Amino acid sequence: MTSSSATTASSGPPAERPLYAIGLRLGAVVALSMMWALVKLLGTRDVHLVELLFYRQAFAVPVVYAWIVWTTGPRGIATNRLDLHVTRTFVGLTSMAFNFGAVMLLPLAESTTIGFSAPIFATIFSALILREATGIHRWIAVLVGFAGVVVMARPDAGHFPLFGLVIAIIAAVGVATISIILRSMARSETPSAIVFWFTLLSVPPLGLLMLWFGQGHDPVTWALILAMGVCGGIAQLLLTNALKWARVVIVMPMDYSAIVWAALLGWLFWGTLPIASTWLGAGLIVASGLYIVLREHRLGRIATLRAQADAEMRE
């Protein structure tokens, strides 16, 4: 439920194509929603979590590599900081495991909605770890987002497992941690390299675990597993490449359309629809996330303009 905020490390940014970028991001959201629905469906077919993680990454490797070769050539995977990719892989796999677990334990719309609390935790981590200035406005947005989680979860109602809620929140914390790591990696690594090395480096440790958890399946289950891996690879590439053509503030609001897709897929596959408290909580979480992104964009523009003015004065 995871997106990359890395920007392309190149000599100059390409011209913006906002409509194209929005289309890529919406396509990514659809692919990601399909992947989560397939994860939940495969969980009901006795596919182990380790298998889901392994096949998600293994089947995505050729998709990711083919895309990179087609768009940027083999040089797109070049890196001089393999250590950074190893760290990102460890954190990414842990976060992915919790995300998959949340999807298997909770209704699809609810697990998707709680995932949108990641910007809230990212704001907290930016203040505590990176020592970034965080004003009263963003702290209010954080509180509103947490209120949305509480409203949606309604712990006293017991309409879904408390354990699943805890797993989903841990998953959102993991996604926020990855966003901090990616912010650092973007200084030296291209989006293509970040996606490729995370996908590839995930396969060996998961392959080792498959010695204990791998099992045979019927043809229909194998087809669903393959579809899950392909959808995941496509989503990861579209999420990242959308940022080549437009700023985060333009494309990120498209991510929230996943709530609609999750509700639709939940109804099609399991005959469930989100209850009123889910929609109300989702509204608070979405409002909080959008405010944080928009405010960071505004402050970033102000900082850029001030830097340009200072540079002109020195000249």
Characterization of the model:
Mean pLDDT is 82; it is low at 1-12. Helices cover 76% and strands 0% of the residues. The radius of gyration is 20 Å and the shape is globular. The chain has one domain (18-314). Helix 1 packs antiparallel against helix 10 (219-245), helix 3 packs antiparallel against helix 9 (191-213) and helix 4 runs antiparallel to helix 5 (108-115). With 315 residues, the chain is an all-alpha fold.
Chain-wise SSE layout:
Blueprint: H1 18-43, H2 49-58, H3 60-71, H4 82-105, H5 108-115, H6 118-128, H7 136-153, H8 162-185, H9 191-213, H10 219-245, H11 248-251, H12 258-270, H13 276-314
Helix pairs in contact: 1-4, 1-10, 1-12, 2-4, 2-9, 2-10, 3-9, 3-10, 4-5, 4-8, 4-9, 5-12, 5-13, 6-7, 6-8, 6-13, 7-13
